[in-house]
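Q: What would this complex look like in 3D?
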Amino acid sequence: AQSVTQLGSHVSVSEGALVLLRCNYSSSVPPYLFWYVQYPNQGLQLLLKYTTGATLVKGINGFEAEFKKSETSFHLTKPSAHMSDAAEYFCAVSPPDNYGQNFVFGPGTRLSVLP
Amino acid sequence: NAGVMQNPRHLVRRRGQEARLRCSPMKGHSHVYWYRQLPEEGLKFMVYLQKENIIDESGMPKERFSAEFPKEGPSILRIQQVVRGDSAAYFCASSPWTGGTEAFFGQGTRLTVV
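A: Here is my prediction, written as structure tokens for the whole assembly.
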């Protein structure tokens, strides 16, 4: 069975500082990987995803993530935090087959950006 | 192409009543997922459906909760005899057949049981 862990339920950074949100997965085969963002009282919005190909993936709002198979990780980064980045971030995986894909979400990391 | 539509956005029910939450997936999407989110908590998977089939309901409570995705019309999550502990945000997501495609989320239904 697949599982996702996100180290740090709450991360605080200063405006302009590097953002690093960690995601590790457990799966018998490399899954498809996703990062979502959730703003208060809203649904989840896709930031970026990795399926195949280049392991460094760029997403919206200046975020990027790198798939490292040897570390079973898919950490999310942004070089310079902005106040508008304050939100909840979820890492998710789905199995790499074409039937019955089910998404497994991590517990989420709440990002606070300090002025 | 409209996104995933959930209604109502807010629902208030008294204890013992029934709650019906509706989800219309994006056009062309045949997979629907329901999640529950409690305040300050992550997403908890409830059920995964395709048209007229329940694929995985391992996250659904055994009693009072049911879900369907009929051939025509929206997916319905039904909670019978609601209790205060059912108060939460319920999110629906949809995806197409092809593996590797992300799930698209609705805005959620916030259920309050009084």
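A: To summarize the key features: Chain B has a mean pLDDT of 92. The two ends of chain B are 36 Å apart (CA to CA).
Q: Very helpful, thank you.
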